[in-house]
Design goal:
seven-stranded mixed sheet; alpha/beta; single chain
C-alpha cells in the first residue's frame, strides 16, 4: 500500500491527544477532484486550516495524505478530537464503488487499526445528521472483510528529478491535467522540466538532506513558501528535506 505525500500548506493546526476511532466519508460529488482541489476549497472557501480529512482515497485506489495524521481533523463536528477522517472520492448516494477503491480502503483501515490499536470504525452519519458516506457506500465490505494483515506503507519518495523525467516521458499529460496530477509540486517539477529541456544547469547541493533538515529545524531556512523557495534555489529537494524534518519533529 502506498500513501502519496502531498506537502499541502496549512494554517495553524492542533495536535490530536488521542486516536480512538476512524470515521468514513464520501466526497459527495460525481465530479472527480484531486486532493489539492479539496484542500483549496476547505482552506480558501470554507475558511478552515486546510483539507479536513486525514486521508483521501480516489476512485482508482490511490491513497493521498491530507491533513497531518496527528492533528485534529475537520470532518465530523463533535467527533474530530479523537478520530481519523478518511474520505472516498465519489458520491455514493448515486454511484457504486470500484473494487480497487474498496481494496484501498480495506488496506488503509487495517493499517490504521494496527498502528493505533483501535477497532472502532464509523460512518459520518453515525456521528452527525448527514447521509454521508451514502446509501451505496460498501461499509461492511470495507470494514468487516475479515482479518487483514496490516500492509506495509510505502511512502512516495520520488525526487523532483524523478517526477520531472516522468513528465518528459509523458506520464502526467499536459496543461491542466498535468497541474492537477502533480498538485502542490507542479511549479517545482515544471521548473525542473524546463531546466532539463532547455539545457540549463542546476546548482549542485553541497550538503546532505540530513544536514539541511537539521538546519531547517534550527531556523536557518525560514518557513512555509520562503523555505521552499530558498531550498529549491540552493539546489536541494524541498520535498525530501521536509520529509526528514517532519520525521525528526514527531
Amino acid at each position: 500500500m502506498e500513501i502519496k505525500e502531498t506537502n499541502l500548506e496549512f494554517k495553524p493546526l492542533t495536535k490530536r491527544k488521542g486516536t480512538n476511532r476512524i470515521i468514513l466519508h464520501n466526497s459527495g460529488v460525481t465530479v472527480r477532484q484531486s486532493v489539492e482541489v479539496i484542500h483549496n476549497y476547505h482552506k480558501n472557501t470554507r475558511g478552515w486550516a486546510g483539507i479536513g480529512y486525514h486521508f483521501y482515497i480516489r476512485t482508482d485506489g490511490s491513497i493521498y495524505r491530507g491533513r497531518p495524521e496527528d492533528t485534529v481533523g475537520a470532518h465530523a463536528t463533535g467527533a474530530n478530537s479523537d478520530s481519523i477522517g478518511i474520505c472516498f472520492e465519489g458520491n455514493y448516494n448515486e454511484e457504486t464503488m470500484s473494487d480497487v477503491q474498496i481494496k484501498a480502503g480495506q488496506e488503509l483501515i487495517a493499517y490504521l487499526k494496527s498502528k493505533y490499536g483501535i477497532s472502532k470504525v464509523q460512518r459520518h452519519s453515525d456521528v452527525g445528521k448527514t447521509s454521508c458516506p451514502g446509501t451505496n457506500f460498501p461499509f461492511d465490505e470495507i470494514v468487516n472483510s475479515g482479518p487483514l494483515i496490516a500492509p506495509t506503507v510505502v511512502e512516495n519518495t520520488k525526487s523532483i528529478d524523478d517526477l520531472a523525467n516522468e513528465v518528459i516521458a509523458g506520464k502526467y499529460g499536459t496543461g491542466e491535467a498535468r497541474k492537477q496530477a502533480l498538485g502542490s509540486l507542479y511549479k517545482e517539477v515544471q521548473a525542473r522540466v524546463n531546466e532539463i529541456l532547455l539545457g540549463k544547469k542546476t546548482t549542485s547541493p553541497k550538503k546532505s538532506n540530513e544536514t539541511i533538515a537539521n538546519e531547517v529545524i534550527a531556523g536557518k531556512w525560514g518557513n512555509g513558501s520562503d523555505r521552499k523557495t530558498r531550498l529549491t534555489q540552493a539546489g536541494y529537494d524541498y520535498n525530501a528535506v521536509q520529509k526528514i524534518v517532519n520525521k525528526k519533529l514527531r
